[in-house]
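Local shape tokens

___
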Amino acid sequence: MSTGPLRAGLERALPERPFRVEFWDGGSLPASNGAAGPTFYMRDPAAVGHLLRAPGQLGLGRAYVSGAIEVDDLDAALAVADDWSPPAIDRAEQIRLARAALRAHGLRLPPRRPAAELVLSGRRHSRARDARAVRHHYDVGNDFFALFLDESMTYSCACFSKAAGDTLEEAQRAKLDLVCTKLGLKEGETVLDVGCGWGSFAEHAAEHYGVRVIGITLSEPQAEFAARRLGERADIRVMDYRDIGREFPGHFDAIASIGMVEHVGESRIDEYTRSLAAGLKPGGRLLNHGIARLRVGDPEAGPFSERYVFPDGAPLHLSRIQLAMERAGFVTDHVEGFPADYAETLRHWLRRLEERLDEAVRLAGPERVRVWRLYLRAARRGFESGFISVYQVRTHL
């Protein structure tokens, strides 16, 4: 078996190629016109099977996550994915390529999806499906996240532009304090932390502002960690946001929603803001900190992110989030964007993860580590390119 016919077919079908491909038998397909670019190493014939089974981003992602494809420069590969538009391949050429692939790797069953891939079932953004999606992302393990987050375990945008120094720890403290000051927290008030994560905001607000915090999350490992961390200073619960109005009607002076709104979805955003409003006292304040899509017409998320990173994640446009808030009775006081800060946050997270790759593989396995190495880079590019931004919106009832 030889990859020669497959290489010839790809060269014919893709006359402009800003990348190089090296195959498992030693053959290679150079970049066209001497173009510089990344090199994709097809380590295993299963790579062809993944690409034939799911052409495009999903198949390439599966091949990479499984280890069938490796690349020498992930950042350059993401640039190709963003900027290169492959030509349409007609049906006859597709058949020729499939035959060439068969000659290259022989008759074999289609490769299985990597274990790190999640295909959700049930109604989108139902309680059960949301809980499953959250567990897939966050239950990799607290120790894994600790490898690249700062010491406070804050898993959201740090505010370097507001910090006294340039360390990740200083920038995260600046962000937590910014949320507290924008909410105007006063000693003795009761605050809800929606999507509380590992409890960094709850700890900061309780320690520095003397408030009583109730934090909710769908991740049991997060809740256990936050509860141990905070002790009697906060009440941490595994709870769905849809239960806020029933459990805590008119209870809170202020609510912080940090990195939560991205997971709610278009179909639930109005319900989400109504739930937050139902938990506030008259005149209560809300600070929503979340990622938003910028370009009209772009999809909510790509197939790779849907299956491997944030299942059902859906950054909405800021205008849609604002509309939902207004429908729920909120009045907007202040809006501030931090795209450069999030890009810098992701650079810090990525550097920390790359410095601890061996430990990351031990904790999460090679597939999940490949997912995260790719995801952190792709997210950074999203903020740098103007695909997404992150906003803090302060409102009140």
Notes: The first strand starts at residue 20 and ends at 22. The chain has two domains: 4-105, 127-396. The radius of gyration is 23 Å. The chain has a mean pLDDT of 92.
